[in-house]
Structures are given as C-alpha cells and as structure tokens.
Design brief:
By secondary structure, the chain is an alpha/beta fold. Among the domains are: 115 residues, Rossmann fold, CATH 3.40.50.2300; 94 residues, OB fold (Dihydrolipoamide Acetyltransferase, E2P) (Beta Barrel). 39% of the residues lie in helices and 26% in strands. The chain is elongated.
C-alpha cells in the first residue's frame, strides 16, 4: 500500500487505528513494528544471481536453485558487467558470489540486494562477516547447509519487506495526520494498553514492542530482573518483575507454582505425583513443571482434589 492510496476525508487518528488493530489485537503475538493492515501477499520469490568461475560446484548450485520453490529465475554471470545489469534490472535479486567479486562491485549496486558469500574456507566466512553478507555458503556444499542458508535468506527478505511496508504506511499516516512517527507509535501503544478488549498485554523486548494475549501465555519464568513469557506462539524475554507482570495480567488463571514460575492454569493438562511430596504439572505443549511444596499446599492441592 502506498501513501497515495490512503486518502480520506477524515483527519482523525481514529479512522486509521482499526487497520493497525487487526494485527495488534489478533490472538497471536504480534510485533507492533510490523502491525500493518492485512494485504494480499504473493508467494515470496526471488531471482538468484551467481558469479560463475567455471567450477562444477557453482554450476551445480545454479541447477539446484532453479528447482527451489521460491526462486523464479537463475542467472549464471561470468563478469561484473552482467552481474550489475541483472541487479539493476531486478529489485528482488539475491547475489551468490565470492568476496573478491563483492569487493569489486559498486556499493550502490549491491546495497539493496541480499548477498550470500560462497567460498571454501573459514577465512572466506570471516570476510563474509566483514562485508555484512546476509549468509555464507561453503563449497562444496551439502543439502542441509544449502537448505539452512536459503531459509535464512528468505526469512531476512520477508522481514525487510515487512519493515519497508510498515515504513511506507507509517510515513503516509504521519504526513496525513501531521504527527511524528514516535507520536503515532505512542498513540497506538496507549490505545492497545487501554483497549476494552480484555487482557491485551503490551510488552517490550529487545526486538521491539509486542502485544500478547494472556490466553496465549502458557507460563512465565523469572530469571533475575528478566521474565520469559512462554506462549502458544514465540517466546519473549522482557524486563520486569514477576509480581509486577502478574499484577498487569490481572487474571485468576495465573497461579504460582514456585517463587520464580507462574502458570496459566488454562494450559494445564494434569497434575501428577512422581515421588513422595513431589508434584509436577503437565502443560498442553508437553512441558513438565515442578510445583514447590509451599505452593502445592497453598493452591494446587485443592486444585488436584477438585480436578
């Protein structure tokens, strides 16, 4: 979506918020920075550009990439000029080349393209890190290393496209509403935290702000000044105290099993005694969590008797 496609007669932020809320208030954990309106997406696809040196390994790499579901076309280029022409012509091109080739290409040409360094030594891998390549593929490669490399590349491209889409949308909104991007994000976050929709929890991790639905939290474990939220989706590490976090959740479903762990009883499958005075909770994801004697007597004993 481009800013030009977002014209409206209303200048109110309220007119735009529902588009963000579709992501913010979904039942899945959502990164606020990626809370963009739902749009139809094509299958993620790229064009592979390989610097040829006449070796059978690179020819074999080209043949394998041609069969990959996310690769629509493969160019095996013999010189810098042909590589440059392809990169300039295709914005979705991914370059597979050695460090020497990357160093000789114009930075203006490669800056917007993911680059995978291909080489045969640990020294090449270190050079790839110095060149800020998105990955390194050692030749001769095996199927597992190539599959992992492609997975990381495609994941990086997807994240970059999401960031670009969010940036375009946010830029259009800030211009339209006459507010800064920081003010826009702050408004969204405050609306999320004060929403009448029950239980939405805004948390900040080292990766950004997330909105988590309490029903998706299986359990919370304290580790010093940090908490780990184990959810039905991904897990999150946040800076908080356990008491503070439970207070924010404000739900009787969250019950302590020890000084450092609180579980959501809606995700408890059963309670079992595995040794004298030793009790465990079986969670719905297969995890086993030990209950301390103090908290078993205080709550879980009664729970077991009425379960």
């Amino acid at each position: 979506m481009t800013p030009q496609a977002m014209k409206t007669n209303s200048t109110s932020l309220e007119a735009w918020l529902p588009r963000f809320e579709a992501a913010l208030f979904s039942r899945e954990s959502v990164n606020v920075a990626n809370a963009v309106p739902p749009v139809e997406r094509d299958v993620l696809s790229v064009i592979a550009v390989i610097k040829s040196d006449g070796s059978p390994h690179r020819q074999a790499l080209a043949e394998v990439l041609e069969q990959h579901e996310n690769v629509t076309q493969v160019f095996l280029c013999e010189d810098l000029q042909s590589i440059t022409e392809v990169l300039v012509s295709f914005s979705d091109a991914v370059l597979f080349a050695d460090c020497s080739t990357l160093n000789r290409l114009s930075p203006a040409v490669v800056i917007d393209h993911p680059c995978v360094v291909i080489g045969g030594s640990n020294h090449d891998a270190l050079d790839a890190f110095g060149l800020r390549a998105c990955d390194f593929l050692q030749l001769p490669y095996d199927e597992a290393s190539l599959a992992n490399c492609l997975t990381r590349v495609m994941s990086g491209i997807e994240k970059q496209r999401n960031r670009s889409q969010y940036s375009r949308l946010c830029s259009g909104l800030t211009r339209h509403l006459g507010v800064s991007q920081e003010d826009l994000v702050s408004m969204l976050r405050k609306r999320c935290e004060s929403s009448e929709r029950p239980g939405m929890l805004g948390v900040r991790t080292d990766k950004g702000w997330y909105c988590v639905h309490p029903a998706d939290i299986r359990w919370i474990e304290a580790a010093g000044d940090y908490m780990c939220l184990y959810t039905a989706g991904e897990n999150h590490i946040i800076r908080s105290t356990l008491t503070e976090l439970v207070k924010r959740l404000d739900s009787e479903d969250f019950v302590r099993v020890s000084r450092s762990i609180v579980v959501n009883r809606q995700h408890v499958e059963n309670l079992s005694c595995q040794a004298p005075n030793t009790y465990y909770l079986a969670m719905d994801d297969g995890s086993q969590i030990k209950i301390s004697r103090r908290y078993y007597t205080a709550y879980w004993q009664n729970y077991a008797e009425h379960k």
